Design the sequence.
């Protein structure tokens, strides 16, 4: 209701300002003209007050209707003392509450107007920069670990190929029947070990790739957040406003130049 009261006062002031701007332009007025101006102003203010009082009444009726519904639901009996509505002490207490509330609202509005956005933006930018550096270092570490695992996998693969070649050479040089069982057991054990190590390396490499992708996405989001925070700073906004004004001035000069060129063409045609 306090907000509605402020809005009503603003609308009434605007009605008077509209009269000053549109109707009170001459130095002298006749009696009939003054009556017409005042009657128009009276109609405007009357309609505004009627609308606000109607909204106030309807709001109170809907609120009381909800109270009565809840009382009926819980089987309550409501008693209203009309005389208390004219109690001067209670009315004065309500006025004090309203005054203190207005003072508190003004204080909050002044606090909101303090220029602290730049400090908040700078602090937040520093935090984002630190987080960016951490992500970059973590990204570098993941890349190094991934390269190490790839090197280990390649090394195991080369050992496997060398072992196969060695087995083939021994098969050609020695008696196949004598060392066949031993070679098969050794080959199977080596192959199993290499397979297990290779699978572990592949799993670890996939995990590192996933972590690397997550770190890169976080790095991209952090860069976007830094760009957005820079766009919200006061310096960027002021520069943007200056560029917009300059563009408007250039556009106006172009329009004026076109008008002058058209006038020159018309004069040449007349001549």
Sequence:
């Amino acid at each position: 209701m306090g907000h509605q009261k402020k809005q009503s006062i603003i609308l009434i002031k605007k009605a008077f300002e509209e009269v000053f701007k549109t109707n009170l332009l001459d130095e002298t007025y006749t009696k009939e003209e003054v009556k017409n101006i005042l009657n128009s102003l009276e109609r405007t203010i009357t309609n505004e007050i009627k609308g606000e009082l109607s909204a106030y009444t309807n709001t109170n009726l809907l609120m009381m209707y909800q109270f009565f519904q809840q009382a009926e639901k819980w089987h309550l009996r409501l008693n209203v003392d009309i005389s208390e509505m004219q109690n001067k002490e209670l009315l004065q207490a309500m006025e004090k509450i309203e005054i203190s509330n207005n003072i508190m609202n003004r204080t909050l509005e002044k606090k909101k107007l303090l220029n602290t956005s730049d400090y908040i933006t700078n602090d937040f930018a520093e935090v984002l920069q630190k987080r960016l550096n951490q992500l970059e270092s973590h990204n570098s570490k993941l890349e190094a670990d991934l390269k190490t695992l790839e090197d280990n996998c390649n090394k195991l693969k080369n050992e496997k190929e060398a072992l196969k070649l060695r087995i083939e050479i021994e098969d050609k040089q020695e008696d196949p029947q004598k060392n066949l069982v031993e070679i098969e057991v050794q080959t199977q054990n080596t192959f199993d070990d290499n397979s297990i190590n290779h699978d572990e390396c592949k799993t670890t490499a996939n995990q590192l790739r996933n972590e690397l992708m997550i770190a890169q996405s976080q790095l991209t989001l952090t860069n976007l957040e830094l760009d957005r925070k820079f766009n919200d700073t006061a310096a960027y906004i002021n520069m943007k406003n200056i560029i917009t004004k300059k563009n408007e001035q250039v556009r106006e000069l172009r329009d004026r130049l076109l008008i002058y060129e058209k006038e020159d063409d018309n004069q040449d045609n007349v001549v």
Residues 5 and 52 are 8 Å apart (CA to CA). The first helix runs from residue 2 to 22.
